[in-house]
Amino acid sequence: MSEAAEAPKGRRPVKVNAVALATFPIEAAATRFRVAQFIPALSEANIEVTLLPFLTPADFEGLYDRERIAGTAFRLLFALFRRLAHLPQILAADVLFIQREAMLFGPPLIEWLAARVGSIPIVLDLDDPTWIPIASPVYGRYTTLLKFPAKANWLTRRARAVICGSETIAERVRAAGVRAVVLPTIVDSSVFMPAERQPRAHDLPVVGWIGTHGTWAYLRTMFPALEKVAESVPFRLRIVGSGQRTLALRGIEVEMLPWRMDREVEDFQSLDVGLYPLPDDEWAQGKSGLKAIQYLACGVPYVASPVGVVREIGIAGVTHLAASTQEEWSVALERLLRDGDERRRMGAAGRRYMLEHYAIGDFARRIGEELREAALPARAEAYA
Asked: pTM of the entire structure?
């Protein structure tokens, strides 16, 4: 942080007005955990953040339902006009904090207007490697054309700094000659915390996965390992947020639940063992490890694919187990299911690790430093 951006001792730095642009409302993890949860702490540092999502909660709810495609098209059009109506607020900002992109589709029109017309500096947040074209599991490859694939590279080159969810993203940002700050996606440990569990001598342990329709394919690769474990150790499988309604696996009682924000913490707390399977591909290498941190925060031991930033979160063998092959997954899951004491030790170690490494205040301070550094010079160098 430069001397110009620091207030003299005992004096509060001038107020910085930041506008945060996000594609999705807070119902989406990226908006909730990369932006919204830091707003109160940023306000205490005299950085006032106005969050303007592109989609409303109602828009987001039906976005991935093919049966609502006509209504979704109209909602996206209305969202475009709503975003254009935000322009006066955007152009009055000292700095823009953009989570991925200002709009879900099309070229970076809003960002171009802000940078070229308003000379507003940009701090970009990338929790995923969005430069990689990914076909939608709902709408197919046509969505990659609407997404304007070059947008992520354009935004990166014009940002003053990029908050990166992983070192993989940071490497690409640095290669473009832009400042990169690595901050994995975290949660508030005062919200995500272990449940007070009562002994359940006769209940089956619950193995669970909490994700989205987009990551459902990762869990499907684990079905052979899960069925193999069930042959020797009975358990219940709880799946949340897959977008699927039914699932039949040999020898396993399966519970399929829709994701709900008001039940998110409870869903994690309900698990005895968490699952975090990832493919070893370019997209997964760039992910920011949120699920691992949610397991740690809630004291849930988990088995994870050692891919990308997930290798660096927690301590394998202490807070969780790592597995790459079907055999390794089977062995790891059976080990945790057979030993309740180890599950409890591992969960407690994970909670301690989370508290030591992922404090909301520390992450908010680092984001605040980047926003203040990027703010218009006349604002960054003046003090109240």
From this structure: 0.90
